[in-house]
């Protein structure tokens, strides 16, 4: 019987069948946490379901009855569809269960035909699962779609179903015998196989079991003592081979992708009340800030700190990127002076922090997933409204702690804070030292104590037990607060209780008081872990040597898991406190690393009998390893431990892969047909050479090789090998496959379906770049277009390399872009391909800024030679690469501008004749400002406004006598990539000037410059730069939103002309720039969408014919929402999900009648770059709030002055690039110069960002 029919039959026989759905719903929250789910029912209301509709309606009611409906708990929406979909109500329509049930009872069958399930799924995605309709997807709330379908869809369901899954929506499909069961399975019905086996198989089970898993089947196995190990291997996961089948099934429906930061990283902002009422308490506030900063790990790549003081107006004392050392911050904090003033405007201060401090330009790493913390110290009631700005901060994911005095408004503080429990109180600010422990208690934690119970700790065990009690005494124990587990290990092991065993502090303390020392030797921590695994969670799988390493592994596998009460997947900090009295018998490195990869904060406390180095390796950071002479001295480190724990407030955000190591999944697809027999050794050698340049590791680069002719065969998968040596050995032993015909299309499809999958080691869903390198020696016998397109839709970057026997057009169609299809005469010429790859880079504007002060006289010839070598590798020409050289000391001298020379020969001749200027002092800051104002300008040959990358290469031999921070930041903000080369006298300053510290290089003297050539060159790094430039500059979706209200009647012709002029500067094509125009007043009207026209001529002609709409009042907020919901969507031509920059240009002539904050925020959350242009009749503050950044709000007196800001707008647009995160549909705009090389260095194996420059010198 088909699956849909089976469901239908069961539904008739067992009216309570919906209950089987509930465990799947409940698993999305912890057992003790209030459930939060967004549940959408999509009901087939076509003609064929008329008789069954009452049963469907009843089903919805019964499911809703089980939910905890509330604005902050479960939300429900219902959509009915046939030919077209119609929302009966949205997720934010009702906030009580009664209202929903009443509406559901009154639902009427829609009727109609044909049944368009695909369109309905797309409708749900674009119109229901959105923030404006009440979806809390961006807050991490699970999104569930329950589809009840009674027939086969008339339209295609694959694309919209995939789009929903990419958003992370969990789809349950329920059908009848009339439904298409295959169609339902594509829409998300879980496929489950339940195996009951009573003995060991006589044949091999691995291959068919793997095949089932690869096809997405969930296998649950129940075995006896005769078959348990085999059943474990067959099951999807060993935990799915247990007796409690229903519970196991309910825990597997959701695939959770965890991304934990590899090092503690936080952006911490202190917002201090500096009004007249806090004058006497200000020294205490200042001391409090110092004490908290002391506990942080301040560093550019770890914790960052900012301080803002406010009264009537806010003022930033310093930003998150102002200082990179703890010493600098503490010195500045010590020198803070009370601001004074009245009244106290806390709301304005919160808004200021959101708009000016928690931004990328001020050092915030929010878009990288770094936790954002705001600690507010307020001594009075706010004079203005705090609710809107506080909500705006929370929508950004900022964790707000409010600390007030008896003069504060406690309710106001609770509303501002992340949660009322995060609002803390003191009598006055002199009591702030007492607040640190209260802060510690306000953040929920899962804390596991791993206690050494071996013979060597017998005397110290009472002290360890007391220590555990004292630490627990400081925690805020509760199901939704802190949870505790204790594990003791020695020869044997024992879990005294799990994280979810007790929910009160009293129960935990009673159990801890009764703990008895177990004893046993040798010290086998690992065996303790294995014991739990063997006897508690899984069937027995044998013993292994007992050791601390195994104990750590045990805790990882058996305690820090959801079934044992861990809330790691909910973002709750995981803390392991190890009390250890001796050196481990086994290796601790691997399990310790595994715990850190999970994000577990390990604190190791040892005695003089412990191995201090081992404890440091185990601990999350060496500074987290504490030491006492004997365990009786544990009270001496208790406060140190609590203080360290209090700094750990890492909320795990699922959107952020923060790993700093380059990570790529690289697949080689080799033509092994009869025609490539002679060339195969050269192909094999090529693979080896490329692999040599990679950083192969399970958590870095992974490699797979597939060979094909008639059929494809994987030589090895992405997760087969974890070392470069293993891969190279296997590649060296590859044998030519042979066979005909050549089916490249089938091979591409095979790679997509069998290699670039999670089970084969692909990390695509984690956002790891997927690269496919195809080496083909002939024309394919089958069709390549469909599988190539399918790979590109997955985001796979395809490089095609062919010979003269290949079909060059076919290779171009397969490749990511025609320029990524490369050619050699035959495969023996593959070594020459590296230069061909390098030559495909887009043109660049390169400025050399050379230190010519007295201190560089001896090194100047070496600097001059270096410039020559770099220029020698550029592709110089008016429309290609351009070069400028500036020498500086006290003053600057331009030797030549970017447009002075158009040939490499002229540049090299001039560089050879450069003479050292001399002079003192060295003013690097003034030189940087000079380059920005006089060299990187259009009149001097800069093509930044055309989107050409701007690069500045600084060679500095000493410390500047003036300030470099402001001009360096100005260059970076304008999109310039800065590379710095310094000597031992200037290296730190050069690091600060460079786009990123990794883009700086240090030499002892400039005579050592040739040594920088020792870096490996990575051919992919430069290619990826081209890809980024292609994606950011050559492809944009641009929407014009025009104020057509009565107040703009006279200015409308000028607005229309402005749109035409901007469009003239774009490259309008289907695969390049797309344009849409919307006009609004009281209501909004789209003149044309992003996919309406594909030529510039069509767009311009339509714009010329635009007529003024008229009407009042002016509802800008509604227009912004309209654009978000109806224009920036896939069906209207938006390519946001492909990573194409989304730009909205608003021309506005008056103040909005409705609220603009919420829709503007919603656009920004989508990653839309909003530019606001207003007149003197507009509200400038409103425009700044609407714009993506206040600097993106431009102003003219009248619309007839629009030509004056046209260039400013185009220049700003040219700096915009989009970082594509494949695991989320949310794109994050940032500045071109800030992201190009950052992405390259983080995704490709550059030993530093500077390697791009070195690639040019070779």
Automatic annotation (TrEMBL):
Specify the domain of life of the species encoding this protein: Eukaryota
CC annotations in GO = collagen trimer
Q: Which Pfam families does this entry report, sorted A to Z?
A: VWA (PF00092)
The alphabetized list of GO BP terms reads:
cell adhesion
GO MF annotations, alphabetized:
extracellular matrix structural constituent conferring tensile strength
Q: Where is the VWFA domain?
A: 38-175, 267-439, 446-641, 665-837, 845-1023, 1037-1209
Checking SMART domains in the record gives: VWA (SM00327)
Q: What is this protein called?
A: Collagen, type VI, alpha 3
